[in-house]
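Fold sample X.
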Amino acid sequence: MNQEQTNITTGKQIRHLRTQLGMTQEELAGELNVTRQALSNWERDVNEPDLNMLKKICFLFGVNMDDFAKEVITKMETYEKKGETTI
């Protein structure tokens, strides 16, 4: 993996895929049944979506979850096993 790929965050990926589809934050938030503010926080890396939401995002965008955020998924699973929250 090159340096540029290692700097991609979950939020940057969500924003990139959303804009590639020409969707607004309001439209994507509606599809995901979350507030626009929650989506904005994800895109700005203030918070991260939980695993179930990440699966829904990947399904909506038609991308493989491993390709989308392999490192983030591993980190989130570790937190969930410890009973901690990432949001």
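Fold sample Y, listed below.
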Amino acid sequence: MPYRCGRCSYIIGSMKDFEAVPGMRCPMCGYRVFYKVRSPIVKRIKL
């Protein structure tokens, strides 16, 4: 699941990319707040 930096919106592909940067910081700006990028979910209700 990809993650997006809260400051610069840089997308990190997986947790393996976090391991490369100590302290779980964005490799571009150094910010430590990330949000999960989720694919849009379509829920269908049968009537």
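Sample Y note: Residues 3-36 form one domain.
Also: The first helix runs from residue 15 to 20.
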